[in-house]
Known about the structure:
The structure holds two protein chains of two kinds. By secondary structure, chain A is α+β, with helices and mostly antiparallel strands. Chain A contains eleven helices and eight strands. Chain A is about 45% helix and about 15% strand. In chain A, strand 2 (about 150) and strand 3 (about 155-165) form a beta hairpin. The longest helix of chain A is centred in the C-terminal third of the chain and has 26 residues, at about 280-305. Chain B contains eleven helices and ten strands. In chain B, strands 1-4-5-8 form a four-stranded mixed beta sheet, with helices on one face. In chain B, strands 2-3-7-6 form a four-stranded antiparallel beta sheet, with no helix packed on it. Chain B has a two-stranded antiparallel sheet with strand order 9-10. In chain B, helix 1 runs parallel beside helix 4, helix 5 (about 90-100) packs antiparallel against helix 6 and helix 7 packs parallel to helix 9 (about 320-350). The mean pLDDT of chain B is about 95.
Amino acid sequence: xxLQLTDAERAFRxxxxxxxxxxxxxxxxxxxxxxxxxxxxxxxxxxxxxxRVMGAAGYNCIAYPKAHGGRGxxxxxxxxxxxxxxxxxxxxxIGHIGETLLGPTLIHFGDAAQQxxxxxxxVSGEEIWCQGYSEPEAGSDLANLQTKARLVGxxxxxxxxxxxxxxxxxxxWCFVLARTDPDAPKHKGISYxxxxxxxxxxxxxxxxxxxxxxxxxxxxxxxxxxxxELVVGGVNHGWKVAMGxxxxxxxxxxxxxxxxxxxxxxxxxxxxxxNGAGKDPVLRQRLADAAIRLKIMRLxxxxxxxxxxxxxxxxxxxxxxYWSHWHRDFGELAMDVLxxxxxxxxxxxxxxxxxxxxxxxxxxxxxYAGSSQIQRNLIAERGxxxxxxxxx
Amino acid sequence: MELTLTDDQQELRRGARRFLAAESSPDKVDAAMxxxxxxxxxTWQRICEELGWPALTIPEAYEGIGLGPRELYPLMExxxxxxxxxxxxxxxxxxxxxxxCAGTEAQKQAHLPAIAAGERTATVAYTxxxxxxxxxxxxxxxxxxxxxxxxxxxxxxxxxxxSADLLVVAARAPGSTGENGVSLFVVPAxxxxxxxxxxxxxxxxRKQADVVLDGVRVPADAVMGEPGAGWAPxxxxxxxxVTALAAExxxxxxxxxxxxxxxxxxxxxxxxxxxxxxxxxxKCADMLLLVESAxxxxxxxxxxxxxxxxxxxxxxxSAGASAAFAEAAxxxxxYCSEAYFHxxxxxxxxxxxxxxxxxxxxxxxxxxxRSSQTLLGSPAYHRERVASLxxx
Lengths: 392, 392
Ligand SMILES: Cc1cc2nc3c(=O)[nH]c(=O)nc-3n(C[C@H](O)[C@H](O)[C@H](O)COP(=O)(O)OP(=O)(O)OC[C@H]3O[C@@H](n4cnc5c(N)ncnc54)[C@H](O)[C@@H]3O)c2cc1C
């Protein structure tokens, strides 16, 4: 089902399409289709530059209000943009954590000074952010975090450790959840701090992932500092801000992502036609099933768009669980369709094919941004009113 | 294209729910399904006279209400939710659609007003002992004889075939195969040579019959549309019926979810509601995902169905629109069938021993879910159709 576009939206789509086509045929041609999940290390410097060029052309953060440097784009325009971006093979965005997580959080919870200091550089692609939530003892149970921040004069001083921090090696800033009142109960006494990454008190240790890449890292804070006023939402009131950020992470429209999935599925269908797997009765069933479910993912998202009144509509609640499992099943299907060929990597030492990267990276889709088990808890409790988990 | 229900559709839903909650309660379903006819004639009369449901999708030119698949959608959901026992599916979703897709002007004039008024029921007899659902199912023959035809063959699995007043019979020219040579005939059930036998079924809420055609003579004007070109309109009829069935499955699945959730909140074991155990909670969360996704699929199919019906007047839908509708209908049938069956099974599990009793309605849903999976083609059959439409 296609989006219904107004004339203005169609004009916007054409403009975006032409711009992307021109850029990705020119000096950024080598970035086309690169830098996605499992391919994060590809041409980092060029992709950072790409983010800045996007910013200069006004294509970063288009949904931010105009006052904050965006275009005030509607949800439909945002979807149009994402679809065009994916269709054009736009590269994986190094700035996506700032753009999709911190920016909206600052617009919602930040004070004017924070907004003025940070939003323009997110919009321009000049500053890269990472998310400092998870710790060795705080994964799904995020409120169990132990990193501490003490106010010393005009500065917060941080001690502790984060883990699985995506983009940390390339980030300029990190939004860090830290305990600022050690005596308060678990969910109280947490603050949401904005911390510069490039300073002596921070050590970054990349962690090699299942794909062989190292998109995330351990981040150690040993006397790391940040200015007193860089607390979002007030001292000891960080939990509700953190949950706000998570809502942006989980609730975001998945329509752009579906184009990415559609591209992946189309490639596998093409492979199936080429190698004869498409004539195998079992694989035909699974390919059709994947296509059906992807279409339903899109329909679910369209219903979510149509129903923006209800913030946590049922369609919105199921979206993460739905797409992550679709993608995981798809990865397995891709391997089965490719058969013997599925094992052969692109090149040594460990450069994987696109299908292999999708297959491996999909195992993380059901873990980050709330694991499937946590999603099911949320759906059952918020969507169906079943009793809450103990220990919250 | 809107994937949300309009106010009118919501109103239809509320009206249907009010009526069926009283008239299709588990007790009343139990009583009706134990009869050979399979429904209570007095209730059916009220449905026809007070609610006008059989007239819903019949154009005003034939004394109907003149609405279409979009308005049928909420009604079907409610019938599924209440496991309604009525000759509605056979008469409206099969019979009326066959007359609309294939009937001549005279045939429509002769039968649609009577159906709209509740004076006549109808069904389609195309399946045979092979149990197939595609054109190869049709082995019965139509041989020219004088001005008319002689029909010979054995129809089986005919919905309400023993009670319907009017049969739409599919038969083929002797020697023809596949989709070629198929013709549809309007045959009053009392025609000489037609023998109808009720077939007891595991799902007692949906009645089936054997229809033996032993040299049945029909006049030339019993042929619907062009002789030998009956498969295309029959396929369209079946796609419309499958779309309605998918909506019914959504309603049934949602009822299973709601029964299970209500029970999980009140049933206590180990000193706590069973709904506080994740093993139960997560089952419910998965059911919610399936119900909402099934709804997206069925709603979308109903929108394309509405377009297909509107195009009937204007010479029929284009090839592209036909294929899109066929794909949406088959996708919905495949997904909704499995969603419903899964939810019906999980509902029994969540209810424990009580779910295994005749007294509890869980078995009604479980059996209806099972029979609906097979009816008009299994999920595998419909996925195979989708695979073909994908050019696999
Ligand atoms: C690719 C990737 C990128 C990431 N990027 C970031 C990042 O940028 N910043 C950041 O802060 N974090 C990041 N994370 C971390 C991610 O948020 C955590 O992995 C996630 O919250 C799960 O925590 P955990 O790994 O400690 O697993 P655990 O919480 O220990 O979970 C282990 C298992 O137990 C299950 N489980 C836990 N609690 C429950 C419960 N209550 N009920 C039922 N089952 C339960 C889980 O579902 C899981 O199966 C990233 C993770 C990945 C994989």
